[in-house]
Amino acid sequence: MDAAALPLPGLRDELSLHPGPASLDGSPTWTIRDPVRNRYFRIGWAAFEALSRWGGTAGDVAKAVRSETTIDMSDEEVVDVAKFLHGNQLTLANSHADTLRLAEQAATEKHSVFNWLLHHYLFFRIPLVRPDRFLGAMLPLMCWLGSQWFRWTSAGALLLGLMLVVRQWEVFTATLVDTLSLSGMVSYGIALSFVKVIHELAHGLTAKRYGCRVPTMGIAFLVMWPVLYTDVNETWTLASRRQRLLVGSAGILAELSVAAWATLLWAFLPDGGMRQAVFVLAAFTWVSSLAINLSPFMRFDGYFLAMDALELPNLHPRSFAMAKWWLREVLFDLGEPPPEAMNPGRQRAMVVFAFAVWIYRLVLFLGIAALVYHFFIKAVGVLLFAVEIGWFVFLPIWNEVKEWAKRRDGIFKNSRWKRPLLGIGLALVVAVIPWRTRIEAPASVAAEIMAPLFLPAPARLEAVLVERGQHVAAGTKLLAFTAPDIDSRRAITAAKLAGKSAELEAVKLDPFGRERLSALTEELSRLGSEKAALDAEAERLTITSPHAGIFLDPLPDLKPGAWLSPKQQLGLIRVDGSTIATAYVAEDDLERIKPGDTARFIPNGLDHVGMTGTVLAIDRNPIKVLTDPALASLHGGDIPVRVSGQILVPQGSFFRVTIRLDGTAPNLKLIGHVQISGQGQSLIGRAARSALVVLVREWGA
Q1: What is the pLDDT of residue 701?
Q2: What is this structure's pTM?
Q3: Domains in the chain, ordered, with CATH?
Q4: What SS3 string covers 31-73?
């Protein structure tokens, strides 16, 4: 049918038209409000003029627009307006064909149970109240909070509070650390509830101030986490950009005002519960406002503020369409026109923004997938993790590949397609070839035997017979100690022994004293044993080297006359022999190494050189307790741990690997990494094995 003779459908009676903001080229716009579906559509000048003369045929409308305005509107452009109205269900359904069309649209929008669950466990809303009348009654009482003087006063409170916090910065940071506990998390949860109520009321009151209706307020669940929401969609009918920006930023401004006054109060309040409460309120509100609400990458306040500030409604889908077009042109040089006309600088900015959103969402969805895996039943968590990655990461990529397939004729017209194909081929080669043969793991290095030195009993140091770092033979005297108590007992025993010996000699000459000979002999034997024990005990106070090696790590301030306890380590002997590295290999890499593989230890820092060696032994059970605290994440190491009482428990499966290194052992334990030359593994093989390990572990196969 000729476009000019095409009859135009009727418009729904409940639709309303409102003046909109000026477009980027300065031309006027209007907003169509659909109250049934609570949706709003922005149209340009030409579409408005056509709608103002709507009725009859497309040719009649186009002719009227041309004759009554300066717009040179064609019949096809009027048909395009009709298609737009049809597609967004803004026309009357007066025929059987219209009914069929609406049924088809409803069928396409209807999701399966699986799709519904997939989307709604991630995000769904529960409207709770209809606050429009309440907000209208509340507005006269609260309008002073949006006044100019209150904003400037809050700004002054903010500056003064920040200055005072800087002066008490150590106290502020210490308080922050103290709140990182279970009770602190509860306090942050209460603060979150309080601040978000204020946030949503600010949106609603500001919208009400500019004459907009606020139909609902309620709770939205984001990955089962409850957040409040307020429906202020009617602000799309506001022609003033400033008014829309104020409605969009009202929640953030309210939170910042709360943070400003809470920060100032914290600086003045004395220590106690009230000061702790305002600290929690201030700290959480700063993070909530600046780090979350201002982000334009998700549909929070920052996104809507960006749309209003740039006059770019539907910023995400428009930027995504522009980025996909740009990507196809870069890869295949199709020569297609951009989705919409705009200057090159704005076009590039939208492409960059789209890629930033994609990267942000990729990280976010991976985080959500990990969250789902850890907090659901493990078997269900694995399934939901796979669904998350498949639906939100791989499916969009697959849909774009299908768009490429539709354009295959245009793609193969020139040779540009060979470049991405070559890149994909190289990526596959890198992913498939098992080029990765090196396994890295955190490790510590020490001599195979380190013998600590201790006293047998409290004693006084008489002499230090060796120096630190001196090589000694086995049995070499190192430290000489005395104990006055032992010396006194030795002297008494020696005197008794001498007296009894003289008495025994006298008895032997006395013919009448022979009956005492047996008793004296037994007493002399006892005293001799006691003296020998005391001599041995005194001998033990001279510390000797148990092995041949180097004397290291002497106790500081070892000076004659000092009294020392048997609980104090006096030093240690690094025994001559092998140098041993103890590495902790992750479960994914365990099957790639075996005894005899070559390894290299690389110490942290530049004070020591690396050492080579071979794998000596591999534990077949993961460690339950980490005995090398320096390797723990709590102390800057690479092994994630949690504290359980006095022990460090690894977070994950790590296996102890013993490596014999060549060269001289270091004087002290070294911390670093080992690089083991093991069996090659491709990136795809590693990913597949990691997934298989998780499946086997969680399903108990």
Answers
A1: 45
A2: 0.60
A3: 3-109 (no CATH), 114-295 (no CATH), 326-435 (no CATH), 450-571 (2.40.50.100), 576-699 (2.40.30)
A4: EEEECCCCEEEEECHHHHHHHHCCCCEHHHHHHHHHHHCCCCC
